[in-house]
Amino acid sequence: MRIFDTVGMPNPLRVRIALAEKGLAERVEFVQVDLAAAEHKQPAFLAMNPEGTVPVLELSDGTYISEVAAIVEYFDGLDGNRTLTGESPKERAVIHMMHKRAEREVLYAMGNYFHYGTPGGSPTLETYKAPHWAGRKEWGALERERGINGMRYFDSVLRKQPYVAGELFSLADISLIGGLMFAKISNAEIPAELESLTAWHMRMLERPSVKHPA
Ligand code: GTS
């Protein structure tokens, strides 16, 4: 299996954490994609993933799987032991829901802030993101606010339970970790009063798969 990846970026990192959790790092070869040069917006890459984003998983039969959650779902099913995406219908539904909230309310919000409200990535990359749009800064700032509100929501969740989807670590935690990484590279740190979220984040940063992702 091959993963088209950009080392050090939040979305590919989510898959690398999942691989470390599952002990599957050895089964995967990483192929680096140059985001700064917008390699992911060129026809050859778009043929694998029309969204033009990393990561993308390539299976040996030529199937391409994009979307972090879909890639994690695949790896989690390989050993018949769904530790990251849940076993029972209820577990699977709750993890899916909380992962979606983490992705939409923190990761995508902070990702939009990074690209539209800050200088973002390289000038070549940003030409694919409406650089002449007059409202981009304002929208970016609104997305930052939305991301901070997302952090407030997760702080309230983590006041009552140890992990984002309940009693166990899951894909939902991985997605929130990715979101907070986007916040960090955009200088949008967790507000100090969000003590439960901060404590959870510190615990997550000590977790072996997060400290040593694939
Ligand atoms: N929905 C996708 C998923 O879950 O896989 C999002 C993937 C995504 O946005 N990847 C980013 C990307 O390729 C990488 S990262 O910088 O966000 O970690 N961005 C390139 C771009 O042009 O926005």
Which descriptors apply to this entry?
single chain; 214 residues; alpha+beta; 9 helices; binds glutathione sulfonic acid
In words, what does this structure look like?
The chain has nine helices and four strands, in the order E-H-E-H-E-E-H-H-H-H-H-H-H. The protein is an alpha+beta fold and 214 residues long. The protein has a four-stranded mixed beta sheet, covered by helices on one side. Strand 3 and strand 4 form a beta hairpin. The longest helix is centred in the middle third of the chain and has 29 residues. The two termini are 14 Å apart. The structure holds glutathione sulfonic acid. Glutathione sulfonic acid binds next to helix 1.
Would you spell out the secondary-structure blueprint of this structure?
Layout: E1 2-5, H1 10-22, E2 29-32, H2 43-46, E3 56-58, E4 64-66, H3 68-78, H4 89-117, H5 123-126, H6 136-158, H7 171-185, H8 195-206, H9 208-211
Parallel strand pairs: 1-2
Antiparallel strand pairs: 1-3, 3-4
Helix pairs in contact: 1-3, 1-7, 4-6, 4-7, 6-8
The structure holds glutathione sulfonic acid (GTS).
